[in-house]
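README, section 4: Worked example with a bound small molecule

Sections 1 through 3 covered apo chains. Here we extend the same pipeline to holo records, where the ligand is supplied as SMILES alongside the sequence. The molecule in this example is zinc ion. Nothing else about the input changes; the structure line simply encodes the ligand pose together with the chain.
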Amino acid sequence: MNERPFNDSSYEQFLNEEKLMGSKCKKCGALAVPPRFVCINCSNTQMEWVQLRGAGKLVAFSVVFVAPLPLARAGFGKNNPYVVGVVKLEEGAKIVARIIGVDGKKPEQIRIDTQLKVSFIHTGEGNNRKTILAFEP
Ligand SMILES: [Zn+2]
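The generated complex, written as structure tokens:
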């Protein structure tokens, strides 16, 4: 597992395998999700992969009414908004992801600090296979 470079393409590959992975600095222990090849804290370049449990809390969210094309095709948009949030993982890192299992039309019912667990949304086939990181209550 350690031979994969610390970049977005490795990260996406791991998501395809339903693994949420981050990079951990071997010097100071700082965690980055998505991974970085240079430590965000001490600029060290010795990293190791860590698999995250995929549990966290909702820190912030926004309801998106203007969907990018793939989501518009999936039926999202002005009349069916979707939710994007910042999730603070148990391990401490914060990550932006789709929030599913909540109603974008009733944002007043979405609560900050809600406990969330990771979910992987797969789209496409073969080389076009992509995985969207999502969290749900
Ligand atoms: Zn460091």
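What to look for in the output: The pocket of zinc ion is lined by residues 25, 27-28, 30, 39, 41-42, 44 (CB under 6 Å). The two ends are 29 Å apart (CA to CA).

Section 5 describes how to batch many such records.
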